[in-house]
Design goal:
35% strand, Nuclear Transport Factor 2, Chain: A, mainly beta, metal-binding, Beta-galactosidase, Chain A, domain 5, signal, Cu_amine_oxidase_C, 11-stranded antiparallel beta sheet, primary methylamine oxidase activity, binds copper (II) ion, 6 helices, oxidoreductase, binds 2-acetamido-2-deoxy-beta-D-glucopyranose
Length: 805
Amino acid sequence: MSLTRLVVALAAMAATHVIAAPSNGFDSPDVFGSMHKPRSCGKGKGHGKGPGKGHGKDCDHFQTCDNYGDTPTTTAPKENVWGPITPADNVAVWNLLHADESLNLTDPSKAVLTDNYVFWIDTLHTNKSDVLPYLQGTVEEPPRKYARAIIFRGGIEEPDSKEFMIGPLPVGPETTIEPLDYIFNAGRGGVVPFNGRVFDSVRAAATEPLIVSVMEELADITEKLIGGVFYGEQDNRTTLAITPDSPMSFNGTDSYRTIMFRYPGIATYLTPLDFYLMLDCPGTDPSAYKLKGLATNSRYFTSIAELRAAWDAGELKEDYQQVRNPDWVLMNHRPEMGKRDLDDRFAPQSLEVGGKRYRVDKEQQYVEYMGWSFYLAFSRPLGLTLYDIKFKNESVIYELSLQEAAAQYTGRNPKAAATMYHDTHFSLGVDVATLVEGFECPYGATFLPVIFYTANTTVTHPNGICIFESDIGIPISRHRNGVVNEYGFDNLATVKGSALTVRSIATIGNYDYMFDYQFHLEGSLEVSVRASGYLMSSFYYPADKGKYGPRVQVATQGALHDHIITYKADFDVAGTKNSLEVSEIVLVNQTQPWFPGFGTFEQMELDISTMEKEQQFNWGENGSKMYCIVNENERNAWGEKRGYRIIPGKSNVHLSAKNSPFSLRQMPFAKSHLAVTVQHDNEPYANSVQNSELPSTPQHDFLKFFDGESVEDEDIVLWFNLGMHHFTRSEDVPVTLFTDAVSSIMFSPQNFFDRAQDGDLLNRRYVVPNEETGELDFEAYGVEAPTCKLQFPEPVLGIEKYIIE
Ligand SMILES: *[C@@H]1O[C@H](CO)[C@@H](O)[C@H](O)[C@H]1NC(C)=O
Ligand SMILES: *[C@@H]1O[C@H](CO)[C@@H](O)[C@H](O)[C@H]1NC(C)=O
Ligand SMILES: *[C@@H]1O[C@H](CO)[C@@H](O)[C@H](O)[C@H]1NC(C)=O
Ligand SMILES: *[C@@H]1O[C@H](CO)[C@@H](O)[C@H](O)[C@H]1NC(C)=O
Ligand SMILES: *[C@@H]1O[C@H](CO)[C@@H](O)[C@H](O)[C@H]1NC(C)=O
Ligand SMILES: *[C@@H]1O[C@H](CO)[C@@H](O)[C@H](O)[C@H]1NC(C)=O
Ligand SMILES: *[C@@H]1O[C@H](CO)[C@@H](O)[C@H](O)[C@H]1NC(C)=O
Ligand SMILES: *[C@@H]1O[C@H](CO)[C@@H](O)[C@H](O)[C@H]1NC(C)=O
Ligand SMILES: [Cu+2]
């Protein structure tokens, strides 16, 4: 990112007279509390006002801080073998597919139901068995890349969707187009029946005439009942919008649409209406599509005539009218809500004032930070993925990747009751974009582009991913020894806490998911996901009595739903062969000879076992079970198995529904907190991107991973779910809040080392009162707070346009 940099004295930015960081924050006894008076300098550049003006000294003699310095570079030890195929590869693959007469492809932008066309092209995952010899150096050449392509084949005898693998790349004489079957295990390989394939714009367009014909006939009623009419999305008389629905098939032989109407525009997700159409729309012949039924006023009608009869009899009316004016859902500043004291001051910032402490190889998408190293990869369905994660040059995790972001809704209406989204189905990765510097990533963060392909073009989102180190707001560790003197200690040791975050935000329609991977200094790795954006809401029915969520506007109910975000963590803790150790706290009654008076009495004990077989499992009740990925063959100095602990964080839930027809068999991965399997090249993904339209006959069945294999001393994979039960509320308006809509997990060294890994950090203080002078001696290990002027970008910078070429 090229930014014009504006150098601003910190004093001016803070709009107060404090701080040009002291030359040594810890060099005098008055460092604590209010006794400390930092130097001030008030003549800021750029900002003329502020109470600092006129106070203190001029900042001009300070050097410029390095907080906007270039990201230090490094050279990745290996080629990034997981990264995306190149734009040139995409074009070559596109051309190769279109040159193949047997595929008989049509330009997707002109395609109709009965054509064959490319749905998308992406990168095929690289087999781990091919990668390991390269990483270990036993093979010189990196594994060759392959593309995967989904082709919609409406033009063949039995229309379907079929997936292909194309490679090796770059395209050359050896390159072939082969069916891609091996990553799908439910029996049909890469083939999905026509009715179960992604309901793309071509299929949506084919159903529109039926929707229009129904709604045209009912226009007089809908105008009066729900305040709008629908003549087609492009017709300028239309004042209603139709909603996306999913799933739209149960087993691939049927195909249906359950359409709820809403008001169009920015408030659309929060202005649902009490009017639903149910269509049957299987196959490639739209003349066979038909209306199945209509619903309003909590009644179901099997024909237009039935509904009209009820209307004519005066039986249909709305108690509440939906709000047309979208003002109430805008995310703008609302002066009518008042003003908070001091809120006009610039908020605290986390800035890399000492200069960046991480290195990036932008070419190879490789990062090094305080002993950590890892590679980044990106895919259309899954977004950002991390590979070969090492700490202190030892392997911890081979692959850490999102697998699915699912949401299932509930409600006593045809739309909410039937809604279950898999966001990878909607290519979550293409919705990763546009991070606002200073607000979503700190000023000075490193931004990386996101690249994906649409047909034979390359789309680049310049600020799709950010990397930054920030203050975590707590010391990693500290201790105060002794309370014998005026300071309250003989010595006090404290270690500064900071962490490196890799962040991306995907906006999938109504929702914004923020995905963070946070690398801590002592070897912990935290994964978290947060949700913001608009609720997918229901019309407000008082008869529901709040059972499906509260009323959040005059005619809107916040529909209760689950978010389940599934991840894969292919642990390779100090090597590929690992086991999953369970340490459960159990209570036992025992006698101890030195307490004869108690007889038997209760003690906690650890019941330690190793999981034997592949399985799905849950967190222990009230935290009673510790799960660790251990390496039986690697011991620390104390003879303990070296391991990483899996620590539950915030909101660790699994899907509530067990037998819902909409989530019946296509998402078993969402139905337990955790699962462990043996790593196989043909089991790279928990889900398939086309599973969501096949709830009863999935293309890919996660349950088939659990076929009794031993997970002891094997290359094992941990699958885990983050998420939340979204108990909706008025404070979800205008949008859900990231602060509490959060779920997380942490992986931490467990006897991986012989002691805590913060002893080598220099950003620490050791404070001892001098016995003779009574003053405090500060040991700063050569790391002092800098005296410098901070840099900020021009205020409007931080967003760059998409590049399409
Ligand atoms: C190719 O597909 C078109 C429809 O896109 C179809 O009309 C034509 O018959 C097909 N050709 C062959 C050889 O199958
Ligand atoms: C709608 O479109 C028609 C045909 O293009 C045009 O004649 C008419 O003026 C438009 N009406 C409105 C309200 O924009
Ligand atoms: C799919 O569901 C329909 C309707 O429930 C049923 O008639 C049909 O046999 C099912 N087909 C398959 C392949 O399961
Ligand atoms: C890291 O480990 C590899 C072997 O796994 C070794 O070749 C390399 O020298 C080590 N690097 C450092 C900095 O210790
Ligand atoms: C992409 O396809 C379009 C339409 O077929 C064509 O006009 C264009 O030249 C192609 N671009 C590349 C880079 O091949
Ligand atoms: C321990 O003994 C008490 C008292 O007899 C009994 O209630 C309790 O269930 C015992 N606990 C266990 C773990 O056996
Ligand atoms: C806490 O966990 C222990 C061990 O699993 C279990 O026996 C106990 O019932 C749990 N207590 C509560 C309040 O859930
Ligand atoms: C990856 O491994 C699977 C399973 O062994 C194999 O079928 C497939 O061809 C391999 N893929 C590539 C690109 O070599
Ligand atoms: Cu939600």
